[in-house]
Amino acid sequence: MVSQAGSTKDALSHGPSAAASPAIAPTAAQALDLRSLFTKHYGSIWRLLRRLGVHSAQLDDATQEVFWVAARRASDIQAGSEHSFLYGVALRVAAQESKKQRKSEPLADLEALPKIVDLGPSPEEQLAARQARELLDDVLDGLPPELRVVFVLFELEGLEVREIAALQQVPVGTASSRLRRAREEFSALSKRLRATLVTQERQRR
Amino acid sequence: MTSSEYDPSADERFERLLIDSASSDELPSHVDAAWHQFNSALQGAGLLAAGVGGALAARRAQRWLAAKWLIWGVLTGSALTALSLRPNHGPRAEPSPTQSAPSALPTLATHPPTSRAEGEAPPPAALTAPAATAKAKLHPTRPHALASSSAAAKALSPPPSSTLAAQVALLDSARSAIARGAFAEALRLADRYRVDFPSGELSPEAEVVAIEALVAEHARQAASERAARFLARYPGDPHATRVKWLVR
Q: Are residues A131 and A93 in the same domain?
């Protein structure tokens, strides 16, 4: 599915540098395609990066980095596989962002998560969708990066395991194993979160 | 929570609630704005591409043509002619080298009317203002009142053609130095640009070249500091994204 994923590694290692790489000089037709590519996929890549944990402050820049790579590797992108190519690049951009973010801040503290109020009889019955979404981010932040990627791609992006394996350039068995661990980890974290919420609510009463 | 109160199905429902909440994720609404920014940055990268007959060549040819017609217009007392043939009015110019030069990159950001002619709605006002600002920052010394003969006369001193040519040549030299690995020389040339043309039209480009040279020399600290100054001085510049990338 993502035969060109390997090439993205090299592309990312250089970044959008006109000096260190072949210059971006598409023809008018290629430029038009680039614009189509950008407008068609920007939203989904932006959302994917957000789900992968890229901070909102870095989200636009990170998304543009993905398309920088696409612009430079336009000739490598096969017709029909644009989205896969962009996904592959996005995973690497997200990984880079994740490393930078880990250096600059501690991991999410689940004990500090229950910041929602007015939970009512049970958390799951009272949570507004927006609050639930915020909690999802917090739980995802608690996952190790390699597990978060698999979980997001499978559960939120709807990719199949073999597609995830291709994107990550790992055997299908490895992707399956990571997904299993990711689900276990996610379940454990969400249980802890719910327990904390219930306890907090009980203390409030 | 005691063990008697433990409800595994509630845990599962809660887990599913969290996962399902992602279905409410909204896609960004600023795709057009992002494209404008991206396109501008691409143009900047194309401008800096060493040895490529792309944006730099096109822009250089365009400026040479503009300078030539500017002089001609002033000498013949027809400042309006000169004005109408300035670079931003290139499409209306006489047949010229620019028309045969390849258009290296999308021109949406600098030629919005063309893009709208493709059936696209005009960009929101909030978009056009930054674009205009970025453009103004890119050309801080470009006169805005060339229609007056006095302003046009000022444009002759020093002759714009030689000034522009010298600026472009200096940056070309700096880019060539980077291309052959002479990073210190590239930095020296970029710094010389700042001295020789303190208000030069290509000041942002010169700064980007300097930052590139520093990054290539692994002078990360100096590159970061210079990049920070660049971003503070030219916050809306099309090169901003590229500069951020260089020092990230």
A: no
